Amino acid sequence: MGKVRLQDVADLAGVSMKTVSNVVRGFEHVSDDMRSRVQRAIDELDYRPDARGRSLATGRSGMLALVFADVRIPYFSELAHTVSALAADRGYRLLLEQTDGTLEGERAVVSAAEAGIVDGVLFQPSRLTSTEIARHRRDVPVVLLGEAPAPISVDHVMIDNVAAARAATLHLAALGRTRIGFLGHEEGGQTYTSKVRLLGYQEGLEEAGLPLDMSLLVASAAVESGAASSALTQALDAGIEFDAIVCRDDLAAIGALRALAERGIRVPEEIAITGWDDVAMASFTSPSLTTIKPDLTGLAASALDMLQERVDGFDGLGRHRLAEWSLIVRESAPLPSSSR
Q1: Which residues, including other chains, have CB under 8 Å from residue 103's CB and lie 6 or more apart?
Q2: DSSP characters over 23-56
């Protein structure tokens, strides 16, 4: 048998092609009896709608884009996995695009390059300012993710990075640590992620009654474990003393564990470590990482809900929502035995 056509389904069900199209598209104003007749014909003929034809009929592609800096960063790969699964539940396929964290790459995203390819975009910028994002007219709905400020006209989902960094710092202070460093922010122009986490770190020190010692801020040449390990090694070689370190992310924390192990410094006995993101490997490091865990499922679901509303025609002001987070306490900065 050749390819089953929409007309074949309509003939078998005894309805018009328009009715079959409405059922396939999920149009709600179809009676239950009519929908059942069409569905029986679809099942009997094993009809598979043609995606290109549906796109022409509806003006939609059935695809969404997820745009971020670098797929090699574990947080983004885990975010992509979560968004892909939730998008599939909504009937969408997901296209991934990375910007390499450059202004040029991010500007390409907000210049409507995806128009006609995807129905909507989830975008986590790291360099573009809120003002520049707002200036670009979009032909494709966009929802922003991450720490950077969003314009009033664009939907945005994030966790409270300042509060989370403050909590990690206060956790270390509560363990009696007084020389708490920060590792992994960029040496050059800092991303907004680093800026807000440093702010939370500073607030945590102030709340704990500890001074801000700029020598304890250890920048990294790149957002990766190797660069963080090298940066911490250089700081230790320079005689800087730590008894705890808040790491910008789990990659920096893993680099810190390596650098400290190579020098025979015990974690957490001599230096306690916290990470950020709770990536899959965080519970398998030695010692396992105490880390900030964002609610990825909640974040992705909230973003997709808003994006779908935009695709369906919502045109109001931007909605700015906070997703949940928690501090996962493991071996690298454990609670005292009496508190467990």
Answers
A1: 127, 128
A2: HHTT-S-S-HHHHHHHHHHHHHHT----HHHHHH
Question: What's the pTM?
Answer: 0.81
Q: Which helix (H) or strand (E) holds 197?
A: helix 192-208
Nearest C-alpha neighbor of 220 from the set 247, 199, 180 = 247
Write down the architecture of domain 6-58 according to CATH: Orthogonal Bundle (1.10)
- Pairing state between β 142-145 and 155-158: parallel
Write phi, then psi, for 169 (nearest 5 degrees).
Answer: -65, -45
Q: Which CATH number fits domain 161-293: 3.30.420.10, 3.60.15.10, 3.40.50.2300, 3.30.70.1650?
A: 3.40.50.2300
Residue-wise pLDDT for 64-74, tens only, equals 999 999 999 99
Structure tokens at 144: 């922003």
Q: HSE (CB half, 13 Å, CA atoms) of 199?
A: 12
Q: Are 334 and 268 in contact (CB under 8 A)?
A: yes
The encoded tokens of residue 257 equal: 């564990």
Q: Token pair of 163, please?
A: 């509060």
Q: What's CA 169's distance to the chain center, in Å?
A: 23
Distance between CA atoms of 291 and 330, rounded to whole angstroms? Answer: 8
Q: Give the position of tokens 């094993």.
A: 46
CB-based contacts of 93, cutoff 8 Å, min separation 6: 62, 63, 64, 87
pLDDT in tens, 130-163: 888 888 756 789 999 999 889 999 999 999 999 9
Taking the C-alpha atoms of residue 176 and residue 195, their distance in angstroms, rounded to an integer, is 26
Instruction: Tell me how far apart the alpha carbons of residues 328 and 333 are, in angstroms, rounded to a whole number.
Output: 10
Q: What number of other Cβ atoms are within 10 A of residue 141's Cβ?
A: 23
CB-based contact 333:275 (threshold 8 Å): no
The tokens of 175 are what? 């363990």
3-state DSSP percent of the chain in helix, strand and coil, to 5: 45, 15, 40
